[in-house]
Each structure stands twice: as C-alpha cells, then as structure tokens.
C-alpha cells in the first residue's frame, strides 16, 4: 500500500481548494480493508504515520482517529469491487450544486468519466450510515456522485483515476453553473450522442 501516494493526493486536493477547513477525505483499498486519512488534521500537518488502517467492520489501527466518513468509504468498497480508491471533496462548485440538490446532467461528453450524468444523493447527516447508503445507491452504474448539501465523491480503479475524476467533477460543475448563471439552457446529449462519445473514448490514445 502506497501511503505516500495517498498523502500526496490529499495535499494536492487541499492545495487546489477542494478540502477547506480540514474537510474531505481519501482512502485506498488495502487487502480486505482500506487505508484512510485521519480526522480533524490539516493535510499540511499530516504524516504517513497518521493514516489509519481500517477493516470492513470498522476496526481501526493507527495513532489517529479515522475520518468521520469512514463508513462511506467502507460502504463503497463493500458494494463496488471495481473501486480501489475513494476521494471525497468539498470542492467549491460541486458543493454549490449539491446545496441546490442538483446533479450534473449530460451537457458535455466528459460526464462519461463518471459513467454518465452525475446524480445527487439524498441528504443525510455527515458521518452516518444513512449518508453512506445514500451515496452507494446514487453511485449505481456511476463512478461519482454529489452528496446533498455536502460535497462530492469520486471512485476509481486506481488512486490516480479517482483523483482525475474528482478534478473533472469540479470542472463540469463549474461549467454547468456558468451556463445557468448566464441564463442559458444547456443542450443535453442524448443516449446516442453519449454512446458515440464512449466509442471514441474506447479508442482514444491508440496508434
């Protein structure tokens, strides 16, 4: 398990303004459990030894308390064998949309990075099993979700993929809000448009 990579990713998100006031959390699958960032510790002050090893049932090993959202991470790993990393942010534009309880519709083909339109999960108090369950339900068939009045979650087969998706969700949220602020109605891509874009993605980068 590359604890250094997890910590570097957390600091990168923090530097980008995605983790205000010690918010947000990241994890990586580790055998039958996962490694997660600690609770209430600024990322600039976090060391690799502060990361917490969790089992699926909530047992923690380490010198710090795990993030209050450990149940969210555990639920995603239990439901999604394709997830090897989970990134939860409070990035400004995605969080703004979540406070309107709005998802991100398919106005741009880059929603395909998330598997399609980005849904907004039903509201639940942070750090609860209800929040975890709502997030998993909204993630069905998707790799990212907004949490109502809270923030965003991105998962990936790798930490790099989850990190890239977290940045793209914020980018899409900003574009969508800019359209709405300009009084413009986004023209949404239909299923055929998205299927054609997905086919292009499948061959992207090949010689």
Automatic annotation (TrEMBL):
- Signal sequence residues: none
In this chain the Class II aldolase/adducin N-terminal domain maps to 4-177
The superkingdom listed in its UniProt entry is: Bacteria
Classification via Pfam families: Aldolase_II
Gene3D superfamilies from the UniProt entry: Class II aldolase/adducin N-terminal domain (3.40.225.10)
Q: Which of UniProt's keywords are assigned here?
A: Lyase, Metal-binding
Which InterPro entries does this entry report, sorted A to Z?
Aldolase_class_II_sugar_metab (IPR050197), Aldolase_II/adducin_N (IPR001303), Aldolase_II/adducin_N_sf (IPR036409)
Read off the PANTHER family from this record: 3-OXO-TETRONATE 4-PHOSPHATE DECARBOXYLASE-RELATED, FUCULOSE PHOSPHATE ALDOLASE
Q: What is this protein called?
A: Fuculose phosphate aldolase
* Annotated organism of origin: Roseomonas fluvialis
